[in-house]
Amino acid sequence: MTGTPVGNDIRRWRFERGEMTQQVLADACSVTRQTIIALEAGRYAPSLELAFRIARAFGVGIEDVFHWREA
Amino acid sequence: MRSPNERYARNALAMFTGLGIYATWGLVLVERPRATTFIAIAAVLALSWGFRRRSLRDWQRRSETMEDERDHAVRAAGDHGFRIAMSFWTVGLAFVVALWSSQAPVLSGERLSGLLLLGVIVANLAGHAVVVWRYRQQRP
After folding, report:
1. Phi-psi region of B119 (alpha: psi -120 to 50; beta: other; left: phi over 0)
2. Mean pLDDT of A27-47
3. Structural domain of A36
4. What is the DSSP letter of B106?
5. Residues of A whose CB is below 8 A from B139
6. Considering its fold, how many domains does chain A have in total?
7. Which of A56, A71, B86, B129 sits between 20 and 30 A of B102, alpha carbons compared?
8. Do the domain assignments include residue A71?
């Protein structure tokens, strides 16, 4: 398994929020920068709690950031 | 940059590989294993529980990023690998001893205790290998 069916637009939202760095987002969500990297690369599916934290950090709803990738 | 958890797993892989070679040579291959070798290896295995805790304290002191949910998930996969390897080793060894212990001297007496200890080392190796593999898999 190299990918996850949960896709996301984290990178796009970071840039739309004034080029927020991965580290700033990681600190806002209480995770490591490596986790943000893995999420952006689609290599890790976050828990529901982390997904909400990330969406809240961008000030948007969870479905604006995460989506189900059809096979 | 690798996470402290991944660095620890890599170091542990190297340590348990060395310990495994030493245990194979000192407890299984030699005709009469020494009690001191057994005790030394058993002591390292017993203390290895504390190695990670010490590493955690070191990371805290250096203010490195601590663990998050992804690290916990990877560690859980490593624990799963440990349990599977330990079960296979123990059941396999029990099976082999039950069938062939009278014909193979390596399966009896002091050398059997070495084989049991070697199982713990192999299970640790498997667990840390799973951790390293999962981190590598998640890297872009």
Report:
1. alpha
2. 93
3. 9-56
4. G
5. 37-38, 41, 43
6. 1
7. B86
8. no
